[in-house]
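Tutorial, part two.
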Amino acid sequence: MQQVSSQALIGLATDIATEFDHRHNLAGDIAAVQAEIERDPDHARLFYENLALKLHNFYTGCERIFQTIVSEPNGASPSGFDWHRRLLERMGAGWQGRPALLSPQSTEDLREYLAFRHVVRNICGFEFDVERIDRLIGRYPAVWSQVDADIEGFVAWLHGLAGRLDAA
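Running the prediction step on this input gives:
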């Protein structure tokens, strides 16, 4: 890991926590949309487009955190046609003294959300696979919980490292 100051580490931890706090509202928003589907099944297709966008937003928010981490302690983001996949993989691995941000399970789970995000960006809403959306929404609470724990652990590591640098 490149040489960084304790203030830079605290700033990074704050940036990560701020971005991740935005994800905390998503579960309630998803539940509200699911309630609308039950209340108005005739317009379910429109609500599924909304759910697809919320899943897109979940992964995109995670990816913003990943980009912050690779641009600070890692020094550079990956490039090339598959940079999104490579960025996710980097978060599942340690790098020059930086621990992995994501557990192997989180990395595996997020691959499907990354793939779905690509679908959302490249097809029309009426083409969405409702069963796939239901599956991802059903898995979302467990995936969110694990990713949340991983990121909280990483932020704690940043604070600990900053404290050790200040004590040195």
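The mean pLDDT is 89. In part three we will examine how such features are distributed along the chain.
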